[in-house]
Structure formats: C-alpha cells, structure tokens
Amino acid sequence: MSLPTFENLFGVPPTTSADAPGRVNLIGEHTDYNEGFVLPAAIPQRTRVEAAARSDTKVRLWSAQFPDEAPHAFTLGGEARTGGWVDYVKGITRILGSDPALRGFDARIESDVPVGSGLSSSAALEIAAGRALRRLFTLRLDDVALARIGQRAENEFVGAPVGIMDQMACSLADTAAALFLDTRTLAYERVALPPRAALIVIDSGLTHDHAAGDYRTRRAECTEAARLLGVDALRDVMNVADVLRLPAPLDRRARHVVTENARVVQTVEALRAGDCDRVGRLFGQSHASMRDDFEVSIRPIDQLVELACRVQGVYGARLTGGGFGGSIVALADASAARTAADEIVRTYVQQAGHRGRRLVPE
In Å, what is the CA distance from 147 to each residue of 113, 126, 151, 200, 202? Predict the structure, then answer.
C-alpha cells in the first residue's frame, strides 16, 4: 500500500523537513534521573518530519505508523492529552507556547525507530519535531535546549518520568561514536569505538512503556534512597558500603546506580584503550545488576543476553533501555557482527518463541 504524501494529506507541499535518530545506550541504565553518567550512541533508524506553516493556530499531525487514521488536529494553547503518540508533539508545542514566533503547522511523520524497544522512539519524535519547528519558525534553540524541551514535554505533558539521556542522545549523538554524558552538568564528549569492534542491537519483540508503573516505581525508590542517605541524588554516593544500611529493596536499587556509574567511567576507559574484552565484562556486570539489583529485566531478555554471550565474536551483551522488555546491545568483532546477530536472533526465535529481529548492523 502506498502512503499518502504531504501534499495528498494537506493540499500544499512541505516547506521544511527534519529528522532525528533513535538511540542505543551502551551502558549507564537508570543513572540519568539520578544525575549520573550515561554512554548512548545513535542508531541508523530515524524519525522524519515534514512540515509547513499555517496562517492560524491550528496544528494537524499525521503519522505513517497509523496510516488509516485521519490527521489529528488541535489548537496551539489548547493541547490536551490523549494517551497516544500525538502527545509527544503536543508536549513540544505546549512547552514552546510562550515563543511568539510559533504558529500553527501541518506535519507528516514517518519513523523506522521501533516503538517500545528501549531505543527512544519517543525522544526521536520529540527531537525531530523540535528540529522541524526550529527551522520552520526560526526558533533560537540550540541542540541542548531542544533536548531539555523534549524532556520537559515527556515529563510534564506525557507524564513519563524519564531522565534527559534519551533527548540528549537523539539531539547530539551519532552512529560513529558513543556520547559520554554527565547528566548533572550536561557536559559531554564523543568516544569512538575501537576500529575492530561493532555494536549489535536486537529487538526482543517485547515492548515496554516508560509511562507505566514499574519505571515510575524505580525512580521513586531512587529518590527515597537518596533522601535516606542525605544526598541530593544517588550520583553523590561514592562508596557502595554506604547503601548497605538502606532497607530492602532500596539498598539494591541504590547499589545498582552507584556501581553502574562506575561502570560507565570504566567502559569509557576500556573503549579508549581498545580493550573490547573488558567492555564485554562490564556489559555482563551491568546486565546482572539490572537483573538482580534493579530488577528491570525479564526472563526472555536474560535468555537473549545469554544466547548472545555464547556466540563466537561477541565480547559481551546486556539489556539496553529502561527494561521490562525492549532490546539488547552487544559489542562484537566488527567482521563477525552481522553473522553473530543473525545467529542470535535465529536461536532466540527458536528457543524463546518471540519475534526478535536484528536492528544493528542494518
């Protein structure tokens, strides 16, 4: 079935377009809302937005992911939550509403970033929409400001208590290097993968939702742990022994965050040294911590990680993203990455019965 063009939908051609990538987090999970360190990279899959300005305050949005739906319409200043994908764009316009340059617009959206796979489909939409509006109305927003607006849209309008890693990654990261980000200061630097290594990203076929209860519970547990420890955020805890006096399960939640922050720094050091074996071990430690201390993995994800670690050419693998489904990331020998990924998926489908798929390498 051929999809309608922008002109088919709205009667005029688009005047601008923008896109943004999804992201995979190499390591540093659930550390961003604890003001810690993360290490994401962009993936090849992207969200694309075509847009044209209107002379009024009406907004019309259409997504190729829901081709049978008519364009969703609303008025600037009258954004109301629907619980659907349009809320991510409505959140952006709500946050930008005080800018006098903003007017109504029509937008057509396409994306190949899989939804619910732990690869930031929502942040990719927020940043792509923000970039399109920045171009359309010459808004004075740099890439960090766009990331902040995207996070506010998701926190304040959508109601998902996410940290800023996803938006920063979708706004600033690329596929050539990882983005070493301090989520407290937003200082960042790019860290190249060793030439002989490549990333593997596999979608488990099991979706998750950051606005759902489990993610929100983990964030609340971290906030309470920090309060009991007398610190502003778990980023400020340097000694793992300090968390052992917390009541269960807060002791385990805090231990994950403290040790995960250390693992991010160690992974950056290992990547710079070209030590792929050490990166693989750190991936394994991170997954075990997410499974046992933070308790955000599920058995099919554990099985996928275990299968990946048994395949020749793979240094290590771990759950990536918020958890409770989603995707895994692995570091592999560059010459073996595609073959290894296909073997992992094939075995996973046979043994787990879920519809996994290789996303990276493409």
Answer: 18, 8, 6, 26, 26
Q: For 227, how many CA atoms within 13 A lie in the half-sphere containing its CB?
A: 7
| Residue tagged active-site, from 166, 182, 203, 293 | 166
| Spatial CA neighbour of 125 closest among 149, 141, 105 | 149
Residues of the chain with CATH 3.30.70.890: 196-360
- Look up the CATH superfamily of 196-360: GHMP kinase, C-terminal domain (3.30.70.890)
Give the residue-averaged pLDDT of 80-104. Answer: 96
pLDDT band at 353 (very low <50, low <70, confident <90, very high): confident
Average pLDDT over residues 279-286: 98
Query: Rounded mean pLDDT of 52-72?
Result: 96
CB contact set of 60 (below 8 Å; sequence gap of 6+) = 9, 10, 71, 72, 73, 105, 106, 107
State the pairing for strand pair 188-192/177-182. Answer: antiparallel
Tell which CATH architecture fits domain 6-182: 2-Layer Sandwich (3.30)
pLDDT range class, residue 204, cuts 50, 70, 90: very high
Condensed to tens digits (0 to 9), the pLDDT of residues 18-48 reads: 999 999 999 999 999 999 999 999 999 999 9
Active site residue 166: yes
All CATH 3.30.230.10 domain ranges in the chain, comma separated? 6-182
pTM of the model: 0.94
Long-range CB contact pairs, 136-139, < 8 A, 24+: 136/15, 136/16, 136/51, 136/52, 136/53, 136/105, 137/53, 137/99, 137/101, 137/102, 137/103, 138/101, 139/96, 139/99, 139/101, 139/102
